Every structure is written in structure tokens, then in C-alpha cells.
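Late entry, evening session. Most of the bench is empty. Finally got around to the prediction I had been postponing all week. Sequence below, unchanged from the version circulated by S.P.
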Amino acid sequence: MKNIFAFVLVLLASSLVNAQNSIENNYNLPPGFIISSKRIIYDLSFKLDNTKPVVNYSQSDLKVLKDLTTEELENYKLELGDYYKYCKEGIAYVGSLSDKVKNIFTLNEIWYIYVFDQKLKNKLLTIK
């Protein structure tokens, strides 16, 4: 009986780890970022159609990155390692977006899309 119980526990733990990994594979998460089970993932594509959001949110709900200035990011380049590289790639992505996209979405929204909505992230690159 104990062996069966232990086996079931191992099976459940394995399933939870695999579920977390499959969730993370659909996102572009910052290094070390773990999604809370309470986190709501918002669909921001409504802004392209100029419609109302399905769920209301505040700008603080969209916060996923540490508050670092560009200068701080450069100063801690070695200490931040992969996080530094992730931020630099994100900054390059934001810089590559058209002014039209930057007028539709706030910077927080763009970073949120960069992390959580890969389909919309790629679509924004096509808008001129």
C-alpha cells in the first residue's frame, strides 16, 4: 500500500512539473521567472481592433520585469548574465516596432506581450 501511495505521489509531482514546463514553453519568460498559479494572462490583442478588453486590468497588473534603468542594466551586466541578455533582446524588439504600434500599446503592454503572447508579439512586427 505504501509503495502504491509513493508511486502516485511521484506520478503527481512529475505531472505538475511537466505542466509547468509546457506552460513556460508557450511564453518567453525572463530567466528565473516562475508563473504563479494565481497569475492572470491577459489578451491585449483587443487594442488592435479598438474594442474593449474582455477583462479589465491596470498597468501594474502587466508588470513582469525588474525596474532597472538602461544605465543600471549596463552596470550590472556581468551579475545579471542571462537576464541582461533577455532584457537587451527585449529592448531590441521594442525598438524594432513601428511608431503605429508604439502609439497603440504602452511600453508595459509591449513588454507584457513580449513575455506572454508570442503570436501577438510576431504580429506586431508586421504592422508598419
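Two things to note before I forget:
The helical segments are 2-25, 46-49, 70-75, 77-80, 82-96, 99-104, 107-116, 118-126.
The CA atoms of residues 45 and 115 lie 14 Å apart.
Will write this up properly tomorrow.
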